[in-house]
Amino acid sequence: MKKVLVLNHFPTITPPTSGGTLRYFYLYHELSRYYDITLLSQGTGHKSGLFQFSPTFREYKVGPDPKWSKHRTSYEFSLIEQMERSRQMTNYKESFEKLYPDNDILVHESPFLLEVDSYLGEDDKMRIYNSHNHEYGLANLVWKNENARKFLPIVFKQEKKLVEHADLVFATSEMERESFISMYGKNPMQVKIAPNGIYPNTWRKSTKQLNTKPKAIFIGSEFPPNIEAVHFIIHQLADQFPNIEFMIGGGCGNSFSLHKKPNVQLTSRISHKQKLTLFASANMAINPIFTGAGVNLKTLEFLSAGIPLFSTTCGIRGLELKDFKHYIHADKENFAAVLNRYYGEDELLEEIASNGQKYINEHYSWRTIARGIYDEMENFKPSNP
Prior knowledge:
InterPro entries: YkvP/CgeB_Glyco_trans-like. By secondary structure, the chain is an alpha/beta fold. Helix 8 links the parallel strand 7 and strand 8 (191-193). The chain starts with a strand and ends in a 6-residue tail after the last helix. It is built from 14 helices and 14 strands.
């Protein structure tokens, strides 16, 4: 069994609940059917060490170095800091050097730790870029801090280098695939699609009939587009719908803990069990996402769970969903009007939710996605120099 080492700038959460941790854990959990997988993650300090998930799947969570551990940075600068520290001999770099000789394939989850891999271009080991997003394109969209934006050329340079040296690049959607090809001039035969996915049998039976008020849910990590969505819910939707209870889960609500809207409930980091309970109680899901890249994992989960979804185009990007068949489309300008028109149409919403659930569960299971990645890796033949 070939050995695979995966480099990432954030750790898993088990079981994962939102954001990139879902892809990071579940995709490699399924790939460990075919490969011996080691995740090398940059831990947050409070949980570090070796975590063995199965005989062929484990994670090393590397705690931060003392000189970095006191830093509390914003989203943009935490990524910039990762790029800066990757050039130095850190605890993470030392762990990579120990693990490198025994692994046959190296996978980069992003360009932010690229410089840790000092053997890139110097050895004959297979390299994979398993992207969560087209990171430069995303950063160019969501990085607002002017000082942070000065580092965008470095992000571009790092991602271009990674794409050029990767034997295979996996994008989460056709749009992202085309973006990698056009921006970095990569051979289209080496850029494949590996979408985000779900486990269809995860969800609990609905309890929404017990609600005294309709519940609309939104979840997300502490990520700028998610925070923007929470601001929109609190300041644009909550006052217009006093009879709807808006439930917001995850770190996206951390900045709004002092809000005074009686029909908005915030839950910070939620466990997997809490998420299942939240989903089961929902009458609808809302996804007012206005910027972003890749495929939105919360959309997959909302639909897989059979929850009627109101979403912007950005919220359903890369999934080829049809308005009024799989979900109900709403723009920033008319989100409230669309929600007001349809949130009480129970029969219509049930039909749309059923269609969306069937479509997602048939096309986006983690097991199917992992098998596709395995086939691409095993069938890859390097081009002659």
